[in-house]
Amino acid sequence: MEFVNYFGAVFEPVAFMLLLGGTIGGLILGATPGLSPTMAVALLIPFTFHLTPVQGLILLGAAYTATVAGGAVSAILLKIPGAPANIATALDGFEMAKKGEGARALQMSFLASGVGGIVGVMLLIFLTPVLAQWALAFGPSHLFWLAILGVTVIGSLDTKSTIKGLLSGALGIWLSTIGYDDIQGAQRFVFHDALTGGINIIAALIGLFAIPQVLEMLTQGRTPRKISVIEVRPNKVLHSVREMFSNLKPLGLGTVFGSIIGLIPGVGGQIAGLVAYDQSKKWSSRPEKYGTGHPEGVVAAESANNAMVGPSLVPLLTLAIPGSPTAAVLLGGLLIHGIFPGPMLFTNYPDVAWTFINSMLIGQILMVLFGLYVASLAARVARIPTPILASAVLILAVFGSYSVQQSMGDVYVMLALGVGMYFLERFGFSAAPLVLGLILGPIAENNFLQGSMIADATVGRTHYFLSGTLNLVLIGLVIASVAFSFWSTMGPRARRARTAEVQT
Amino acid sequence: MSQMSTAKRLQHLAPNVIVTALAAIVTWISFTQEPAGAYLFPRLISVFMLVLALWSLARAVLGISRVGTGLSAETALNLAPGVALILIYVFWAAKTLGFYTASTAAFLLLFTIYDPTPITSVRGWIKRIVISAAFMAVIYALFTLLLKVQMPRGLYL
């Protein structure tokens, strides 16, 4: 119960103001279609440079929580999910809004998000120290395989093509080797002056997540997005509270599935929301009502996508393996403040770790309070024209990446990666494994070299890296994640390809 | 119909060719450059990358994999002015004209190019100028006044 000692730090004036600002700002950003939680957190990192590590993480954590929940606003009122995590919410939420129950759907979504989110953070609180203790036994070979596992899991699960996902991950690891190598100090793959110091992770994150979204917005050209404006009639909050607690089954299922899925690296909110929605439909006494504006669908989806947030940080804080793209961006935020997560985090920086986790718990409560009352305001934000959004995100991306090291080189790298990623994404490559490769590359390389030195002096490399129970378990997981991905995509994909062939 | 299919196949081939070429260059550098110790890990990764790239290329050549939406002519035409503007803004204007001048111009121009309001509309121009100026004022307050970041000055601010 060590975490209780650090609640006070969350309520210090600056920290609490940042928590409030991050929550309200996150709700607004989340409600804005085209701004994903990952991109919102990446764009916020430059603003944390002048804050203490704790304050910076409080801001980023609050934004992460609130953007996921805020995405429900545009999903419900416009049928445009604010983030992939809100896709399932749109199925019933928009139908409720069409019937004039927009406010009811919004209130239920924020309440369900709050319940799911609080349970998720509680899991983070109780699981993280246990796992961190266990992870203390990890040596260089285990950490090497763990880093590879992180990349392969995301590479094989978060993409439409397993091969292209793994290729994106390998590309990311290679990008991480650009610049000086840590052991010999030799320059590697420096094709341009801007790459001399390697690729700055924050500039890369901003470029890879913000620029493709800017370009995607521009693909609409001068044709405005067609938005059906739905009137939000007032609804009593207490009525929604009572109603939500009468939907305990979808709430429980959403929370449980969201929490479990959150723990699996790379699976993310989109799958959490859809799986919980599907399971809730299967367990429901009225499954035929799903998709017609049934509150159970909103409750299941929203409780799941917020329940996923806390557990998705467990592998990040204990093993330095980000479980989701947004967690990868948070890792960037930690590294920029000189804090390296992993087994020693709770020993070396207990104040930072626990205050951050506690702030996420308080953030969930604030998110519900503000979500209930600013939902109708956020609906207006959701209608911001895309040319304004695209221009604003572009300028923020340029200023943000420049301010990292006050270097134009970072801006060039940010833009080159962003534009390149946009075109690659249109052909089935994915940014998430590339980012994870970029972040986990140095961890993999350092542990590989360290392990190699130990191996050369003792049992030899093959024996050191390929034997021992833990190594074999991790290698097995790497193979299983890739094999599962091939198995689950090849069948349907082959069928789709055959159908496409017939159509053309 | 078959021409369109060939065009699509060629389009899906292009990114795979680029990535394979990159993987080949990286692998060649990893095996030829000194000091060899510094390239130990890149060697491991580049071989893995090259194998995957060749595999992906082979699938694209055989037309097995067409993942992703590709790039239609309409999308490319819509994107072209925006991409050109962004490249000019970052690679030339930001340093030559100064960060704030170039950014204000980039915001206004990008907004204007993609704004559905007719270009001849006076109200449209007033709206665009006011929003651009207000946004840049917020950026100035955030980065220069609050975060104290020194932005490059060019001919103008």
UniProtKB/TrEMBL annotation, chain A:
<keyword id="KW-1133">Transmembrane helix</keyword>
<feature type="transmembrane region" description="Helical">
    <location>
        <begin position="384"/>
        <end position="404"/>
    </location>
</feature>
<keyword id="KW-0472">Membrane</keyword>
<feature type="domain" description="DUF112">
    <location>
        <begin position="17"/>
        <end position="436"/>
    </location>
</feature>
<feature type="transmembrane region" description="Helical">
    <location>
        <begin position="134"/>
        <end position="154"/>
    </location>
</feature>
<feature type="transmembrane region" description="Helical">
    <location>
        <begin position="34"/>
        <end position="51"/>
    </location>
</feature>
<feature type="transmembrane region" description="Helical">
    <location>
        <begin position="352"/>
        <end position="378"/>
    </location>
</feature>
<feature type="transmembrane region" description="Helical">
    <location>
        <begin position="316"/>
        <end position="340"/>
    </location>
</feature>
<feature type="transmembrane region" description="Helical">
    <location>
        <begin position="6"/>
        <end position="29"/>
    </location>
</feature>
<feature type="transmembrane region" description="Helical">
    <location>
        <begin position="411"/>
        <end position="444"/>
    </location>
</feature>
<feature type="transmembrane region" description="Helical">
    <location>
        <begin position="251"/>
        <end position="277"/>
    </location>
</feature>
<dbReference type="InterPro" id="IPR002823">
    <property type="entry name" value="DUF112_TM"/>
</dbReference>
<feature type="transmembrane region" description="Helical">
    <location>
        <begin position="195"/>
        <end position="215"/>
    </location>
</feature>
<feature type="transmembrane region" description="Helical">
    <location>
        <begin position="108"/>
        <end position="128"/>
    </location>
</feature>
<keyword id="KW-0812">Transmembrane</keyword>
<dbReference type="Pfam" id="PF01970">
    <property type="entry name" value="TctA"/>
</dbReference>
<protein>
    <submittedName>
        <fullName>Putative tricarboxylic transport membrane protein</fullName>
    </submittedName>
</protein>
<feature type="transmembrane region" description="Helical">
    <location>
        <begin position="464"/>
        <end position="487"/>
    </location>
</feature>
TrEMBL record, chain B:
<dbReference type="Pfam" id="PF07331">
    <property type="entry name" value="TctB"/>
</dbReference>
<feature type="transmembrane region" description="Helical">
    <location>
        <begin position="129"/>
        <end position="147"/>
    </location>
</feature>
<dbReference type="InterPro" id="IPR009936">
    <property type="entry name" value="DUF1468"/>
</dbReference>
<feature type="transmembrane region" description="Helical">
    <location>
        <begin position="76"/>
        <end position="93"/>
    </location>
</feature>
<keyword id="KW-0472">Membrane</keyword>
<feature type="transmembrane region" description="Helical">
    <location>
        <begin position="99"/>
        <end position="117"/>
    </location>
</feature>
<feature type="transmembrane region" description="Helical">
    <location>
        <begin position="43"/>
        <end position="64"/>
    </location>
</feature>
<keyword id="KW-1133">Transmembrane helix</keyword>
<protein>
    <submittedName>
        <fullName>Tripartite tricarboxylate transporter TctB family protein</fullName>
    </submittedName>
</protein>
<feature type="domain" description="DUF1468">
    <location>
        <begin position="18"/>
        <end position="152"/>
    </location>
</feature>
<feature type="transmembrane region" description="Helical">
    <location>
        <begin position="12"/>
        <end position="31"/>
    </location>
</feature>
<keyword id="KW-0812">Transmembrane</keyword>
